[in-house]
Write a structure and sequence with these properties.
Bound molecules: threonylcarbamoyladenylate, magnesium ion
Oligomer: single chain
CATH class of the largest domain: Alpha Beta
CATH superfamily of the largest domain: DHBP synthase
Number of domains: 3
Radius of gyration: 24 Å
Length: 515
């Protein structure tokens, strides 16, 4: 049996990798491995950076593990280890076969010595073509930053995949045309992918109860498989069949805040497929407050899994144009209903814990929720100033970098005067180095900066406007091809909590304290 390994399997992964790596030592050229021995910390780092582990089990025991990582448009097979007592090529082939289905793109880079020989035998049965040595070298350099001679037997398998035609369809945001909604719903029912507007950001929808469709959704977004999407419903009554239990607190929050930018985490029923929940025992549920989203879910007659409609790691899309930039050729339809109103995603509240925990700040304010649910607590991630230790992450989303433009982001925090002074100083210093600098300022401060590009997030007295502009401006400033983006901070109040959470994450915690 092959199964996805989760956090609970960490010790198992560690022991298989360590045992196998020690056994391989001396038998294969040392420089075939970048890290021939994987101490715990390195393995944790691998998981954090998006390596997904799969295990092959015999009689319930994990006897082989394989780690894959989507990098760019290639799926890199990062690890393949078998217990010394089980080193048969058949195990590798089984894992590889499984991974071909999971691979989000048609390309797989096989980077380990013993795997390459399995793979070469294997590809012939699957119509794969190994790349030339030169192409392999290029990919290795690009994604792994090591020259080909260090991974002598590596091989890249490519599979041609048809890019699909993406239909861009304008809809009336207030009163969507029934024929257009019906056409989009038919596509979702057949397992296709439709991007649609919600009040927060655009979502990429698939039939939440169709595992194949949800897998295709992960593939289109290049989203790590361990990060489950939010399941969207059009009516509160649809929740009952998707959850195991319906706590009073859920009823209360749904009553007060649905439809709206609030996602609830609850224990799920057997009806929800494993891929939709990434193997967790909980599911994320939300009823959006947007006529197009609601009409689409109703017409589809089933819940719709919809993460934000961006490529994984990029800022969430607030317009159909953003969706098009990221996903053209990868999804069936984009329903264009104009710019999203709120601009940051929904607030995620975990009701499977006691006390309930706010995992992601968003469109429904913490202060407002707290008034209804006095025991609600903020997860440390919400205001974290550095990357959280793996064991402290609770939402899978906490493990991955998000909202990241191409250029590095520096976030300057402190009192406003000090922040402005610090940004001026940093701008000067970067420009002396010959760097093109972009600054994200606010209406009140923008006049202070002599950057190559500066943009205002909105007025400090109107954090709604800042939230609404945030993702659009991250994309726009990136399009100016700046070398570095320096951004102001805003207070951690109201929507500022969500804005700061996104900015800290976008900066990969490159935070400069100004006072
Ligand atoms: O506003 C929104 O919520 C948008 C629109 C499209 O509805 N959707 C959205 O989805 O932001 P996505 O997939 O980009 O973010 C979902 C978040 C991720 O951080 C994920 O880790 C978390 O919800 N999540 C999903 N299922 C979870 C679960 N069972 N337990 C904890 N966190 C979960
Ligand atoms: Mg997202």
């Amino acid at each position: 049996m092959i199964r996805r390994l989760g956090d609970a399997d960490f010790q198992t992964i560690l022991s298989v990798v360590n045992e196998a790596a020690v056994a391989y030592r001396g038998k294969i050229p040392v420089d075939c491995y970048k890290t021939p021995y994987m101490p715990q910390k390195e393995l944790e780092q691998e998981i954090r950076s998006g390596v997904q582990f799969y295990g092959y089990t015999e009689n319930g025991e994990v006897v082989a593990v394989m780690g894959i990582q989507p990098v760019g448009d290639v799926t890199l097979i990062r690890h393949a280890y078998t217990l010394t007592s089980h080193q048969r090529w058949g195990i590798g082939a089984k894992l590889l076969n499984h991974l071909l289905h999971l691979a989000e793109t048609g390309r797989i880079l096989v980077g380990t010595w013993e795997l390459a020989s399995w793979a070469i035998r294997f590809y012939q049965n699957h119509g794969f073509q190994p790349t030339t040595r030169q192409q392999t070298n290029r990919l290795l350099r690009k994604y792994w930053n090591i020259p080909h001679r260090q991974v002598e037997t590596s091989v890249v398998l490519t599979l041609e995949r048809n890019t699909m035609k993406t239909l861009l369809l304008k809809v009336n945001p207030q009163n969507p045309e029934a024929t257009k909604i019906q056409a989009a719903a038919e596509i979702i029912k057949k397992g296709g992918l439709v991007a649609f507007p919600t009040e927060t950001v655009y979502g990429l929808g698939a039939d939440a109860l169709n595992a194949e469709a949800v897998l295709a959704l992960f593939a289109a977004k290049r989203r790590p498989l361990d990060n489950p999407p939010i399941v969207h419903v059009a009516d509160k009554t649809e929740v009952a069949s998707l959850v195991k239990a319906f706590p009073k607190k859920a009823e209360l929050l749904m009553e007060k805040f649905w439809p709206g930018p609030l996602t609830l985490i609850l224990k799920h029923s057997a009806k929800v497929p494993n891929v939709t929940t990434a193997g967790l025992d909980t599911v994320a549920l939300r009823m959006p407050n947007h006529p197009v989203a609601l009409a689409l879910i109703k017409a589809t007659q089933r819940p719709i899994a919809a993460p934000s409609a961006n490529l994984a790691g990029k800022p969430s899309p607030t317009t159909a144009q953003h969706v098009y930039e990221d996903l053209n050729g990868r999804i069936n339809v984009i329903l264009d209903g104009g710019a999203a109103n709120i601009g940051v995603e929904s607030t995620v509240v975990d009701l499977s814990t006691n006390p309930p925990t706010l995992l992601r700040p968003g469109g429904t304010l913490f202060e407002t929720l707290k008034a209804v649910l006095p025991d609600l607590v903020l997860h440390p991630f919400v205001q974290a100033e550095k990357e959280l230790a793996l064991e402290k992450t609770r939402s899978p989303g906490m493990r991955h970098r998000h909202y990241a433009p191409k250029a590095p982001v520096v976030l300057v925090e402190g009192n406003l005067q000090a922040v402005v002074a610090k940004i001026k100083e940093l701008t000067k210093a970067y420009r002396v180095e010959g760097k093109k600098v972009g600054v994200l300022a606010t209406d009140e401060t923008q006049g202070n900066y002599q950057a190559d590009v500066s943009k205002s997030l909105g007025s400090r007295s109107n954090l709604e406007s800042v939230a609404k502009n945030l993702f659009r401006l991250l994309r726009e400033i990136d399009a100016e091809n700046v070398d570095v983006i320096i951004t102001e901070s805003v207070p951690f109040e109201g929507l500022g909590l969500a804005v700061m959470n996104r900015l800290r994450n976008a900066s990969a915690y490159h935070i400069v304290k100004a006072d």
